[in-house]
Design a protein that fits this description.
By secondary structure, the protein is of the alpha/beta class. It is about 25% helix and about 25% strand. The chain is globular, with a radius of gyration of 16 Å. The protein starts with a strand and ends with a strand. The structure holds adenosine-5'-triphosphate. Adenosine-5'-triphosphate binds near residues 34 and 46. It comes from Alcanivorax hongdengensis A-11-3.
Amino acid sequence: MLHIHSLQHALIQARDLHLDAGQGIHLQGPSGAGKSLLLRCLADLLPWQGEMELHGRSVWAQTPVQWRRQVVYCSTENHWWLPRCADHFLHDPRTDMDSVGLDPALLERAPAQLSSGQRQRLALLRALDRQPTVLCADEPCANLDDHSRARVEARLEAFVQRGGMLILTHHQKPSLPLTPWRIENGRVHHA
Ligand SMILES: Nc1ncnc2c1ncn2[C@@H]1O[C@H](COP(=O)(O)OP(=O)(O)OP(=O)(O)O)[C@@H](O)[C@H]1O
């Protein structure tokens, strides 16, 4: 599904990594190793060089917008542009809110009126709302309590099982089944 032939950034490089639908990756490595950089390069949000394919189609045969609609980066440091939380969704998110422990009434509020943990979960739903092929989730459970963490992990697992592909970074080992990758000395490899 996603094939990284080669990816070079000033600080990291990856070569010959293949990922299938239904696969989740747990990206490991020390703080500052470049885990977030890799996710942002995969989503084409940072300058990088090389070649990647999604469903056999080169990144260079697509517009940046086409690629970024399929490979979506979701960060804990999320940004919001519109007055109400609900305004950020293309599809009605109310039924999905409960899956991550959020009260649908929060959708009527301004993003700034949510707690950071609520905003983080809403940002995940916003990313899933775009129906990505690959979700690059950067510390999706950081700062969450155990109950919320379990619900977010279940939501991510459901995404992968429906044919999505997930790459996430975590300091804490998530409970869903994941293939470990590691970044060491700027190189990404199977752990
Ligand atoms: N846009 C950027 N351009 C160049 N260097 C960057 C950029 N963003 C971060 N860095 C640097 O790249 C290195 C890797 O940062 P990154 O955020 O990817 O680390 P990380 O492995 O995700 O760390 P952590 O686990 O602490 O979140 C750090 O030294 C950081 O200062």
